[in-house]
C-alpha cells in the first residue's frame, strides 16, 4: 500500500489563511493579564490546570496518573472540526469518531466499533456521566472547558470497560454573567454555527444553552451514485441549569442531537484484474485508488439521534464528623442513542452483491446512578499528614436492540462477482475455465443469463435471498469503590484503592433465512437462542507518591482493570455469539513538575501494561467464505513504553513551545490461532490449516510505536492593542497496521502532518479570529483496511484525512 499513500495534488477549494496550533493557555493567560502595559499583556507563568482525573479537583501536577489535557480554547482555535483532529497533540492516543461509532486506542489498546454489540476499552465520561457508546462524544464538540485523557487502566474510580484508559470531558458550566457568544466556522468543505447563551437568573440560578449546527460537503465522491459520501452533519442543542446557595450546588443538564451522513466510507484500493473488469461493467468510472472517490451501489445512509439528561448534586459537609473538607455527591444520568437508519454495502463495490440494512431503528438506552463522598482530612486519628479520599457506590443498566437484514441484492450479479473473485484469487487456480473460456471473461454474461432465467428458477431457490438476524441485550451493573492517598509522612503518601462489582447480561438472538444461497454464501444457520452471563470484577490499585512541593510529584502505581464480556450483534449462526472478559494489569512510574518560576511544565511516565484474554475485532469467515464482524479473545498482549509532555514559556516574551511524545511497543505475547489473512500466502505466519495464523510476538493493530507533536508559537501585540499569535505544529505518527490480521496491504506508513495558524484576538478575550491550515503536507491516512468479503486479494480502506484543508473561525463572547 505504500505506493498509494503519497502526496496528492493540491485541490483546496478555499484558502482563508495560514494557521497552526497554539496552546490555549497562551491566549487565555494573555487575556487574563492584559493591562495598559504592553509587556503585562504577555504571560510569563503557565496557568494552573485543575483536573478531575481522580473525581477530586486537583492541580495537574498532583495527580499520580499519566494525563494528557487540551483546553477548550485550543479546540476552537486549531481549526479542528471534531475530536479526532486533536489526537495528534497527545502521545499514545488514537481515535476516530462518527455518528454511528467511535474507535479509541491508548497505548495500543482499544476497541473497534465494527460490531454494534461492542463496549469500548476506553471509557467515555462527560461531566461525570459514563456513556456506554463512544459516539455520544460527538454531541459535545463545542463549548468545552477541557478534555482529559487518562492513560492506562482506570477501573478503581471509573469502573469496568476502562482497561485502556478514560476520555474525560468537562463542558462549560453556567456563570453569573448574562451574555452570548459562540463560533462561526467556515472551512474548505465544512461550515458550522455554534451559538452560546449564558443567562443569570437571579442570585442563585444561572443557565447556559449551546448549539452546534454543522454541515459537511463530504469526504468522498461516489461515482456510481453521483453523490458525496461521509458528509457528516448535525443539529445539536445542549442546556445546563445551575443552582448555588451555601453548601449546596445542583447542576442539571440535557441534550438532543440529530446527526446524519451518506455512509459509504470505504473505497476499494486494490482489486484483482477480473473483479476490476466486472466492476467497470457496472460503473465505467470505477478505479481502485486511495483518492477522494469511491464506487458503491447501495445508497447507504446513517442517521443517529441522541438524547440525554443528567443531574449532579453536591453538598459540602466540611467539619462534619471532624473531617476538615468533604463533600457528598450524587450523579444521575439517562441517555438514549437511536440508530434510525444504517445501510452497509457489504462488498464496497458498484456490483449489487451484498447489503446489510437495519430492518427498524436500533435503540441503545442507559441509566446510571453514582453516590460518593470525597474530600481531605489533615490526619487519621492524629497520625500522618493528610488524606485525600473518595468512597462511593455505582449502578448502571442498559438495553440494546438490533434487527438486521443481510441480503443478496441480485442473484446474477452475485454469481458474476463470485466467478470473477475466484478467477482473481491469488491463492486460487488462475487458469480455471468454463467451457474453455477463462472465468474472468464469462462472469458478466453468466450473471445476466442467471437474471434472465431467475423467474424460472425462483420456485426452486426462493425469490429472496435474505437472512434476518436480531440481538436483544440487557445489562445491569452494581459496584462499590474507594480510593485514598494517605500522606504517612509529610512528602510521602500511600495510594490504595479498589472496586468490586457484579454484572449480569442477557442476550436473545435470532437468525432466519429465505432462499437457498444465504446459508452457502454467509455460513448462515437458523436458530433462536437466549444466553445469560454473570461476572464479578475486582479492580485494585496500589502505589507510592513523593510530593516534595505542591507543584511536583513522583509516583509508582500498580493497577488492574476489567472489561466485561458480551455478545456479538450480527448472529448469522450460533458460533461466536459471545466473548469473554479481558483483564489488564499496569505498572507505571511517573513524574510531574512546574519549574523555572512556573514557566515550564514537564510530565513524564513509563509503563508496562499486560492484557489477558484480550478482546479483538475481526471478520469471522462463514462456511461459504462470507464474513461478519465479531469480537474474539486473543490469548495475551503487552505494551511497554512511555509519554513525555512539555509546556514552556521561553525567556523571549511571547515565545512558547508545546511538545509531546509517546512510545508504545504493543504486541501479542501469545496468539497462536489468530484469524488468517484472506490471502494466506501473503502472511508468513499462516498455520498449516490455512484458516489461522500465529501472531505471537507480532504487533497489535492500530498501535503506532511512536507518536510526537512539536508546537512552537509566538504571540505579540499588534497596532490597536490586539494580540496576534503565529504558530506551526508538526504531528508525527509512525507506521502501523490497521486490521488485526496484519496483511501487508493493511499497513499504514508513517505520517508527518504540518499545520499552521494565525490567531488575532482582543486582550479582553471577547473576540478572536483564527485562520488555520491543516495537513499542509497532504498526508494520506487510513484508519482501517478490510478484505473485500467473498473476494480474496481485494482490499477496501476507510480514509481519515481530508487532504489539505483551510478554516476560518470567529470566536466571540459579548
From TrEMBL:
Q: Which GO terms describe its biological process?
A: iron ion transport
TonB-dependent receptor plug domain location is 60-166
* Pfam families per the UniProt record, alphabetical: Plug, TonB_dep_Rec_b-barrel
**Matches recorded under PROSITE patterns:** TONB_DEPENDENT_REC_3 (PS52016)
Residue ranges occupied by any TonB-dependent receptor-like beta-barrel domain in the UniProt entry: 282-776
Keyword rRNA processing applies: no
Q: What is its main location?
A: membrane
Q: Name any GO cellular component annotation.
A: cell outer membrane
Asked if the Swiss-Prot or TrEMBL record annotates the protein with the keyword Transferase, the reply is no
Q: Where is the signal peptide?
A: 1-29
What is the topology of this protein in the membrane according to its UniProt annotation?
A: Multi-pass membrane protein
Sorted alphabetically, the keyword list is: Cell outer membrane, Ion transport, Iron, Iron transport, Membrane, Receptor, Signal, TonB box, Transmembrane, Transmembrane beta strand, Transport
Report which superkingdom the organism of origin falls in. Bacteria
Q: Where in the cell is it found?
A: Cell outer membrane
Q: Which InterPro entries does the entry mention?
A: Beta-barrel_TonB, Beta-barrel_TonB_sf, Plug_dom, TonB-dep_rcpt-like
Q: Which PANTHER family match?
A: FERRICHROME IRON RECEPTOR-RELATED, TONB-DEPENDENT OUTER MEMBRANE RECEPTOR
Write out the similarity annotation: Belongs to the TonB-dependent receptor family.
Q: What is this protein called?
A: TonB-dependent receptor
Its taxonomic placement starts with:
Bacteria, Pseudomonadati, Pseudomonadota, Gammaproteobacteria, Nevskiales
Amino acid at each position: 500500500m505504500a505506493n498509494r499513500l503519497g502526496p496528492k495534488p493540491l485541490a483546496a477549494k478555499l484558502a482563508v489563511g495560514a494557521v497552526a496550533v497554539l496552546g490555549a493557555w497562551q491566549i487565555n493567560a494573555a487575556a487574563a493579564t492584559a493591562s495598559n502595559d504592553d509587556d503585562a499583556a504577555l504571560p510569563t507563568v503557565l496557568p494552573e490546570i485543575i483536573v478531575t482525573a481522580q473525581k477530586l479537583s486537583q492541580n495537574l501536577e498532583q495527580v499520580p496518573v499519566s494525563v494528557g489535557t487540551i483546553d477548550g480554547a485550543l479546540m476552537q482555535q486549531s481549526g479542528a472540526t471534531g475530536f479526532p483532529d486533536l489526537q495528534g497533540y497527545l502521545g499514545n492516543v488514537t481515535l476516530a469518531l462518527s455518528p454511528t461509532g467511535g474507535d479509541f486506542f491508548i497505548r495500543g489498546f482499544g476497541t473497534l466499533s465494527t460490531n454494534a454489540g461492542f463496549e469500548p476499552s476506553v471509557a467515555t465520561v462527560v461531566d461525570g456521566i459514563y456513556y456506554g457508546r463512544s459516539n455520544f462524544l460527538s454531541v459535545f464538540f463545542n463549548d468545552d472547558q477541557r478534555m482529559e485523557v487518562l492513560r492506562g487502566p482506570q477501573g478503581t474510580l471509573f469502573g469496568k470497560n476502562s482497561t485502556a484508559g478514560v476520555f474525560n470531558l468537562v463542558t462549560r458550566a453556567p456563570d453569573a454573567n448574562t451574555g452570548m457568544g459562540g463560533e462561526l466556522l467556515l472551512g474548505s468543505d465544512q461550515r458550522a454555527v455554534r451559538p452560546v447563551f449564558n443567562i443569570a437568573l437571579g442570585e442563585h440560578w444561572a443557565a447556559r444553552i449551546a448549539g452546534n449546527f454543522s454541515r459537511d460537503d463530504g469526504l468522498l465522491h461516489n461515482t456510481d451514485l453521483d453523490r458525496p459520501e461521509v458528509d457528516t452533519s448535525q443539529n445539536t442543542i445542549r442546556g445546563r441549569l445551575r443552582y448555588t446557595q451555601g453548601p449546596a450546588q445542583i447542576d442539571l443538564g440535557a441534550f438532543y442531537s440529530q446527526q446524519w451522513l451518506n455512509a459509504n466510507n470505504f473505497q476499494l484500493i486494490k482489486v484483482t484484474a477480473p473483479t476490476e473488469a466486472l466492476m467497470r461493467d457496472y460503473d465505467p468510472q470505477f478505479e481502485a485508488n486511495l483518492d477522494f472517490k469511491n464506487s458503491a451501489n447501495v445508497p447507504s445512509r446513517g442517521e443517529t439521534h441522541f438524547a440525554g439528561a443528567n443531574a449532579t448534586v453536591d453538598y459540602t459537609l466540611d467539619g462534619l464528623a471532624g473531617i476538615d473538607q468533604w463533600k457528598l455527591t450524587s450523579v444521575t444520568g439517562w441517555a438514549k442513542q437511536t440508530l434510525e437508519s444504517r445501510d452497509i454495502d457489504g462488498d464496497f463495490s458498484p456490483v449489487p452483491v451484498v447489503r446489510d440494512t437495519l430492518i427498524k431503528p436500533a435503540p441503545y438506552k442507559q441509566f446510571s446512578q453514582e453516590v460518593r463522598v470525597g474530600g481531605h482530612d489533615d490526619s487519621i486519628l492524629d497520625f500522618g499528614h493528610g488524606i485525600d479520599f473518595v468512597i462511593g457506590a455505582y449502578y448502571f443498566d442498559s438495553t440494546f436492540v438490533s434487527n438486521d437484514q443481510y441480503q443478496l441484492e441480485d442473484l446474477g450479479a452475485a454469481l458474476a462477482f463470485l466467478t470473477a473473485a475466484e478467477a482473481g484469487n491469488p491463492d486460487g487456480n488462475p487458469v480455471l475455465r468454463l467451457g474453455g473460456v477463462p472465468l474472468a471473461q464469462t462472469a458478466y454474461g453468466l450473471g445476466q443469463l442467471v437474471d434472465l432465467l431467475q423467474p424460472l428458477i425462483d420456485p426452486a431457490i426462493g425469490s429472496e435471498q435474505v437472512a434476518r438476524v436480531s440481538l436483544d441485550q440487557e445489562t445491569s451493573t452494581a459496584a462499590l469503590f474507594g480510593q485514598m492517598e494517605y500522606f504517612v509522612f509529610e512528602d510521602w503518601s500511600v495510594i490504595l484503592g479498589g472496586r468490586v462489582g457484579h454484572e449480569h447480561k442477557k442476550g436473545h438472538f435470532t437468525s432466519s433465512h429465505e432462499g437457498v444461497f444465504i446459508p452457502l454464501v454467509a455460513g448462515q444457520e437458523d436458530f433462536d437462542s437466549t444466553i445469560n452471563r454473570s461476572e464479578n470484577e475486582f479492580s485494585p490499585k496500589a502505589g507510592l507518591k513523593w510530593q516534595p512541593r505542591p507543584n511536583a510529584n513522583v509516583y509508582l502505581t500498580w493497577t488492574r482493570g476489567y472489561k466485561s464480556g458480551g455478545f456479538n450483534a450480527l448472529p448469522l449462526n450460533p458460533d461466536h455469539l459471545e466473548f469473554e472478559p479481558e483483564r489488564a494489569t499496569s505498572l507505571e512510574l511517573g513524574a510531574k513538575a512546574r519549574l523555572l518560576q512556573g514557566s515550564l511544565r514537564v510530565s513524564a511516565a513509563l509503563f508496562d501494561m499486560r492484557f489477558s484474554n484480550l478482546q479483538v475485532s475481526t471478520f469471522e469467515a462463514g462456511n461459504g467464505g462470507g464474513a461478519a464482524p465479531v469480537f474474539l479473545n486473543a490469548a495475551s498482549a503487552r505494551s511497554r513504553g512511555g509519554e513525555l509532555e512539555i509546556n514552556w514559556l521561553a525567556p523571549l516574551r511571547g515565545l512558547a513551545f508545546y511538545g509531546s511524545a509517546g512510545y508504545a511497543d504493543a504486541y501479542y505475547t501469545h496468539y497462536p490461532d489468530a484469524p488468517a489473512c484472506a490471502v494466506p500466502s501473503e502472511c508468513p505466519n499462516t498455520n498449516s490449516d490455512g484458516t489461522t495464523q500465529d501472531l505471537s510476538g507480532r504487533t497489535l493493530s492500530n498501535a503506532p510505536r511512536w507518536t510526537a507533536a512539536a508546537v512552537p508559537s509566538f504571540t505579540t501585540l499588534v497596532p490597536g492593542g490586539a494580540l496576534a499569535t503565529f504558530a506551526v505544529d508538526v504531528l508525527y505518527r509512525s507506521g502501523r497496521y490497521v486490521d488485526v490480521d496484519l496483511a501487508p496491504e493493511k499497513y499504514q506508513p508513517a505520517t508527518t502532518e504540518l499545520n499552521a495558524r494565525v490567531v488575532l484576538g482582543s486582550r479582553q478575550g471577547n473576540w478572536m479570529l483564527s485562520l488555520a491550515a491543516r495537513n499542509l503536507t497532504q498526508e494520506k491516512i487510513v484508519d482501517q483496511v478490510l478484505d473485500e468479503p467473498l473476494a480474496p486479494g481485494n482490499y477496501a480502506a476507510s480514509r481519515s484525512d481530508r487532504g489539505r484543508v483551510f478554516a476560518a473561525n470567529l470566536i466571540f463572547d459579548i
